[in-house]
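Appendix B.2, paired examples.
Example (i):
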Amino acid sequence: MSLRITIATARRVLAQLMHDHRTVAMMLVVPCLLLTLLWWVYDGGPVWDRIGPALLAIFPFMIMFLVTSIATLRERSSGTLERLLSMPMGKLDLLVGYAVAFGAVAVVQALLAGGLALGPLGLDVAGPAWILLGIAVLDALLGVALGLFVSAFAASEFQVVQFMPALIIPQFLLCGLLVPRSELPDVLSAISDVLPLSYAVDAMREAQLSADPSVWAEITIVVGFALGLLALGATTLRRRTA
């Protein structure tokens, strides 16, 4: 793996993103709009305080997954990946470069959404704000890693969208937002235990309820999933869409 090639790839992807104003708006503005909408629905009451931290984990994860997977797929279907991989560039160089570029946007996205929730929307949390913001950033990076991995298996943008019911919605349903994970049936609880978003939401809840939260175990699992997905993506990445 070459640091120089990785940085050059990240700079190229960021330059392309900056010229796509609609995509940038979707990544940065949509999570804030969704949080504001739900705050308005619940009138900033106790329900908002209960679900707000979980939403800070879920929205960045979902949106970064969708944007990253479609953007990477377009690079492959247009032949850009084939041209890049014909150069002295490894698949891991390419994927890490993409991860750095989209990860930079993910950091901004998570900080904007977290700052909005903890500031103007008045989300009530006991733990330090920086811990919640850090977890939100990691969740967005997890979405980036999953999007890069999924893009290797999709042949079109429509197929990327089809992956959402298979990979994203089950995590949304079983992460503890709708029903506490401890109250799930045994089979669903076991499934929830192997889904990374469950640990992200657990970490958010701990950071919300405790003034001195212990979230390192959950953070380690989330980071491990993200790194594992990047490694798998490097082994499955194809140069072109068949």
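Example (ii):
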Amino acid sequence: MFKEIEFSEVKENVVDLIAKQWALVTAGDKDGYNTMTVSWGAVGELWGVDTATVYIRPQRYTEQFIEKNDYFTVSFYPAELKNQIHGVCGSKSGRDVDKAKEAGITPVFDEKAPYFEEAKLVLVCRKMAKGKFEPEQFIDKTVDERWYPQKDYHNIYYGAIEKVLVKE
């Protein structure tokens, strides 16, 4: 069971959750959705609202669901589920397997984008803007060399955090 709270009431360090633990970004609906792990992201205030930003490479299957839908979720999980969930959602494509089934997680469709029952924290986000990294934007040229050897630059999705759910 989840309860809704204000983003300012989140007790955990969300930067730590994204960078040092991991999250799932999920988009779609009960007729079709996909999820993927993310460890690059940001949260904060932008354009007068609490915002989550996620970075998705164009070849990722989740990209088409984020493109097609107005909402996405960013969800965080207990550490003891990391290997179980991350091992599937971080290494297999939803084009080839049912990630939720293989990872043993239960999709929930009661919001404007899916999330999973096993989450401890869920951010329900409305897309506000999309950008894209381009090589000429990198002031530090080592970023391009290190992170983009295939030149598959991330799309950047900015989402207004419309709802925050925590596991009771």
